[in-house]
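Lab meeting, item 3. Inverse folding demo.
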């Protein structure tokens, strides 16, 4: 028994030295640089090394598939079937021209017109523009994550060993490190904003609040091994305005807040999220709503209007899509944010899916499961573009203004601009959309050629 005591003492000493070294490296290479907003370039080297490994793994898969006479699946770049944009009238004219001699000048129903609606229905089933926006992107190269590769199978021993080594690194090293950083960042945010909340209002409190928020969000960014490139920083949102961005993931907030200082908008939660919200609102004026208040559009609009009219308050950060889209497109913006008479600062966010899929499919994964997938990915790499500020033009309604801002974001981010409401992933298609096609066809066969919109 006594002979084991020296061994136990040595083991404890080694464990203590290991933990001390671990936290020292954590502090020196991650936390301190995050506090001062600097980087040693380690993540860039890490990213470039991963790209070389991914390319080698993909070439090995293609060579293995060629040797075994198997076709390798190559996804389309954007997942969309190319189609020409034509009107209801033009397409039915073409159908009638090929099937009968009747023209549209005769206000009469033709049986062949049914083929147009049958074909459109089949195209919609085969190439649904809405449903495909809520599934993960397929990659042309394999990133050693089995959940992102349709061709994952045993190709060679070296490739299998490399994949297994990647699992050990991601779950054995990166996951504990990232969890420790996330806990550190969240703890500092709660403690820091609580302390700042006791300071008297003034410039010093605003200065401290800004730096506490930036410091903690930057630590949380490190917790995801996020590599973010910001473009056109001169267009950063300013006080008294609204920042609107496309929405892919809950971490969009961290991505933007680690480079700017925003007032958040959202519903009041309980549990840990509620603790964070109560601490944050002590340090700066965020806009939190009770569950019963969220459904009152007029109350929400009034609270937001009162906030932006005070030019000393922070710009509000809003995601007008209202749901997460899979990093390939931008869907309909809710008009509420654009009814407020203030400057809008558009921001485009585009993630690089090669290192990890940032999209949150909330109908498939819970928040805990999603965060686990994020923290066991290789990294989160994205680009952020600050677009020039935009204002509502004279005579322009909120819907057209929202569409104009959405188009600018989609164009800059290389995303597909869609008119569909993202809420369709949980709801049935509204009857008004069906009635719109019926009205178009009714006007056409009745001889009314005015105000025809493109189908």
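The presenter then showed the designed sequence:
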């Amino acid at each position: 028994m006594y002979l084991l005591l020296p061994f136990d003492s040595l083991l404890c000493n080694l464990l203590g030295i290991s933990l001390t070294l671990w936290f020292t490296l954590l502090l020196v290479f991650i936390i301190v640089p995050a506090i001062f907003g600097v980087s040693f370039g380690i993540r860039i080297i890490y990213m470039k090394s991963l790209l070389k490994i991914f390319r080698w793994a993909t070439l090995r898969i293609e060579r293995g598939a060629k040797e075994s006479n198997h076709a390798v699946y190559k996804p389309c770049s954007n997942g969309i079937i190319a189609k020409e944009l034509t009107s209801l009238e033009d397409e039915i004219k073409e159908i009638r021209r090929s099937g009968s001699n009747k023209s549209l000048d005769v206000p009469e129903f033709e049986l062949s017109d049914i083929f147009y609606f049958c074909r459109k229905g089949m195209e919609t089933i085969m190439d649904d523009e809405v449903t495909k926006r809520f599934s993960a992107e397929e990659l042309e190269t394999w990133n050693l994550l089995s959940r992102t590769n349709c061709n994952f199978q045993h190709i060679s021993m070296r490739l299998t060993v490399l994949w297994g080594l990647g699992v050990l690194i991601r779950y054995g090293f990166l996951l504990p490190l990232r969890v420790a950083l996330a806990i550190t960042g969240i703890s500092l945010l709660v403690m820091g904003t609580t302390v700042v909340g006791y300071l008297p209002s003034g410039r010093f409190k605003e200065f401290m609040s800004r730096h506490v928020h930036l410091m903690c969000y930057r630590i949380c960014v490190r917790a995801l091994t996020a590599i973010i490139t910001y473009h056109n920083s001169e267009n950063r949102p300013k006080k008294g305005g609204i920042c609107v961005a496309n929405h892919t993931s809950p971490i969009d907030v961290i991505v933007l807040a680690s480079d700017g200082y925003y007032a958040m908008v959202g519903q009041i939660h309980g549990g840990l999220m509620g603790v964070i919200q109560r601490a944050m609102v002590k340090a700066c004026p965020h806009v939190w709503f009770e569950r019963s208040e969220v459904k009152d559009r007029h109350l929400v609009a009034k609270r937001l209007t009162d906030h932006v009219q005070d030019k000393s308050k922070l710009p509000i950060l809003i995601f007008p899509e209202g749901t997460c889209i899979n990093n390939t497109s931008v869907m309909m913006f809710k008009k509420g944010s654009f009814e407020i008479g203030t400057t809008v600062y558009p921001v485009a966010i585009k993630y690089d899916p090669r290192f990890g899929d940032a999209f949150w499919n909330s109908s498939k994964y819970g928040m805990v499961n999603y965060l686990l997938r994020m923290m066991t990915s290789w990294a989160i790499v994205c680009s952020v573009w600050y677009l020039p500020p935009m204002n509502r033009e004279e005579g322009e309604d909120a819907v057209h203004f929202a569409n104009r801002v959405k188009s600018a974001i989609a164009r800059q981010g290389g995303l597909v601009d869609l008119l569909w409401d993202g809420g369709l992933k949980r709801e049935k298609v509204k009857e008004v959309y069906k009635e719109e096609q019926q009205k178009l066809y009714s006007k056409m066969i009745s001889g009314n050629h005015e105000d025809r919109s493109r189908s």
